[in-house]
């Protein structure tokens, strides 16, 4: 099962609306089940460096089928996955990446959001993912 | 002057409609004046390898402010820009990348389209760019 | 639809047997529908440089859902896809990459073979792909 | 002395059986004495992001002829090899990579396993390595 472009655009629209609601400017990326980009939107004035981060967050969330922030706890110094970020041409393991599931609970893709605090990034990603 | 996300989404919508009209499945990328991705959409079933190509076409068109196919003529063996594709982490110099101008004629970004013949890619890119 | 590991190992076994039959030593890679590696085998004494080539051939065949050699004809100087090899972190566009289809004709992955002449590479890839 | 493809496939088979026995889904990579991939298998449903990690674990184990987890202790902040992961196009230094020795105790390659907890990854890698 793979996310469709129509679904991905719905996710981005929801994420944009949430970003506006909490007064932030986000980069929003959606990847499919194969971790390949399906849709992307960068809000006017959003940080340029967050473009790549949002895509890497989406990929990371699908690579391991979990929220990126969970991996980030495990990749700290002394933790089991220290420096896992060096794999897969660069992971981003702080919050803002969330798997996207269909009605049956299957993972069909992931969203990555970057442009504000990691708390805000996660809120927007979660809101986008839950719009499906 | 920079393309806005709203404008970029309008470009992608127009390009999608044109793609459907000529029975193709496209990857469509829009970059801003800084050659950074603003919006992207991959139509369901479009070639996976065209994802990267559509982004590189959009960047190439803005890097040199001309249609990608024009550069492709100059990058042939024996021509002045032979193998220019090695620069900028990889250019794509066949048709499908077109600069986007505002009403005043200023270049505010570029569109890159990939997923069919280069003729079709260019037709869709041209249609998208002219929707602004 | 995605190729399974069991199917991919069957493809590699068939390809190995064909390689032995025509007295060659091959690198054999199988990717899934997302163009990600599923199984790989390098025969003893096979060219080391063909390792990466076999993986890139498999990816290229799935990226564009056609035999790699077909793309190679279009990427020659003066042809429509000149220097397409600069995309996707490097394509290989000479023969030896073949899509893998299931009984319904759906593409579920691809095989890439490298280690001999491109004619032999293609023969082995074709044989492997048709074993499913 | 170099691991043969037949030996590498035996290692992967053993690792797959152990993975099933402990109810995990693994990516399993085997490299030779030159740290180049010999054989690889990704079990159905295994994490996609573990593909690259399993190969990097196998390479890392052979690059330094020790279990990857040992290097990971030395690469922590304040330790002698801090951030060694930046070398060699990316190392993975947590458990799951194990050198493979022949009957004489010579290192002939290495196995890298990724797809579960690092403890499980190491158990499967150790089991695979000891199958020779």
Automatic annotation (TrEMBL), chains A, B, C, D:
InterPro entries: GlcG_carb_metab_protein, PduO/GlcC-like, PduO/GlcC-like_sf
One Pfam assignment: HbpS-like
Name recorded for this polypeptide: Heme-binding protein
Annotated organism of origin: Flavobacterium polysaccharolyticum
């Amino acid at each position: 099962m793979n996310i469709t472009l129509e679904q991905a655009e719905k996710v981005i629209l929801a994420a944009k609306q949430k970003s506006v609601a909490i007064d932030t400017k986000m980069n929003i990326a959606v990847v499919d089940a194969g971790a390949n980009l399906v849709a992307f939107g960068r809000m006017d004035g959003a940080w340029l460096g967050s473009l790549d981060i949002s895509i890497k967050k989406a990929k990371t969330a699908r690579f391991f089928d979990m929220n990126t922030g969970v991996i980030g706890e495990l990749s700290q110094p002394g933790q089991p996955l220290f420096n896992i970020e060096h794999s897969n041409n660069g992971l981003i393991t702080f919050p803002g990446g969330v798997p996207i599931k269909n009605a049956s609970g299957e993972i069909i893709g992931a969203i990555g959001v970057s442009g504000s605090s990691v708390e805000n990034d996660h809120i927007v990603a979660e809101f986008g993912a839950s719009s499906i």
